[in-house]
User: Fold this.
Amino acid sequence: MVNRVQNRKDRWLGVLGIALALVLWECYAALIVRNSFLLPGPVDVAFAFIELLQKGILLLDFEVSLAHFGVGLGAALLVGIPIGIAMGWNRKADAFINPIIEILRPIPPLAWIPFAIIWFGFTTVSAGFVIFMGAAFPILINTYTGFRSVPRIFVEAGRMLGCTKNRDLIRYIAFPAALPSVVSGIRIATGVGWMCLVAAELFGVSDYGLGKNLWFYYNLHRMDAVVVYMILLGLIGLVIDMAFRHYIDRYFLKWQIGEVA
Amino acid sequence: MGDLQIRNLSQSFPREDGSILTVLDNLNFEVKDKEFVCILGSSGCGKTTLLRLIAGLDRAKNGDIILDGEKIHGTNPKVGFVFQEYSLFPWRTVIDNIAFGLEMKGMGKEERYRIADHYLQLVNLSQFRNSYPSELSGGMRQRVAVTRALALDPVLLLMDEPFGALDAQTRNTLQQELLQIWEKTRKTIVFITHSVDEAVFMADRIIVLTPRPGRLCRIFPVDLPRPRDRTSVDFARVRRDVLDQINRHCSIQ
Assistant:
């Protein structure tokens, strides 16, 4: 009870912090900088937001960006998890694939943009590919380490209970044991993938998109609109992460509750 | 049936410096059907190695393990195993842990839950049916682990110091419970321990191994009537005999 009351008080502190930051920002912009090109204040941004909403492009931007992100993250899951499992379960596969992964992994995802254009043209897949290059490695690496650290005793207990085929051991023992690590890899991947989104839309794969129009309004020197897009990108990223924390963790990892605390 | 024969069993591992570490040296013994045998020895005498070989988790360098006339190669649903450490699957509820082996056999949900519930009642844990292992105490976890091994109805139950990590009181309770279960289900049990007290309380026969490398040292039949009383004079006499002989013949010289 005491904790809950304390939490509510702390939440008020958070709201107060945001309000104070907005006031400071507005004062600094309106009284000191006095140039909405250099630093638009929150009031400018709010008007820009209403204007963009009335034009009806924000929803389209959101849909297009989500499509880019979905393609990239979906592909990262489809590629990262199976390769991670293969490497984590089989020493030979690990020795075979690991050097390639270690060479590809440090390449910044944005360095793939030229090939994204050459291979996929100016399409949704092309933007998805850049996001994929950012999201695949966290998923792969976390799946790999998750499988690597499956306690041997679980595998042996499984074998004693008639779970002897590799496929069954992976499905019934190793995967559930590694799931916390896999899930946290996916969570990191959503963050990295979302950060790649703006760059993936900069080279003109679509007419809409949060990243695309952020750049478009910069070219029009409409910095108030740029800030609208920045805030939207931040908030949507936050919502994705929170959905993850509250839905995925609660649902898939409920058996861990109490083990950590 | 659950007749176990160990013939000329040896196990050794190569050391890093190229020499060979002999863990078990030419073991020969038999465990009769429905018998409760304790294997006693100090740490490092190869008790666990022996049990893992019988379980089929490891392969022996030499010798045979014969269960009901058939040589054991690899794990086998006729042999159940209770590990020393915590081995329940933490992502499965108690009932799903117990039903795991039945699920692997391809049994339908309803039937495997019916069997699992039956065994759960045997250890009085029905109210924890849908709990996760992290919500159970150490003693309850080991009871579920025993139940999980029993659910597949093995003929031979191998137990590797299953109560070693528990406090003395819980351990006594679980020993009594296990004996009751054994009397009801009549499995052959091979139980590893380093406690003479535990061995005398539980076993029909006690097999004592020498330390490093593990060789057969002594076999004691325990003729005390059941249920046994730890505080009785006879119990103390048997325990003293066993300890005495171990000290004289089975410890490091």
About this structure: Strands of chain B lie at 4-14, 20-31, 36-40, 62-67, 70-71, 79-82, 156-160, 188-193, 205-209, 216-221. Chain B has a mean pLDDT of 90. Residues 134 and 246 of chain B are 39 Å apart (CA to CA).
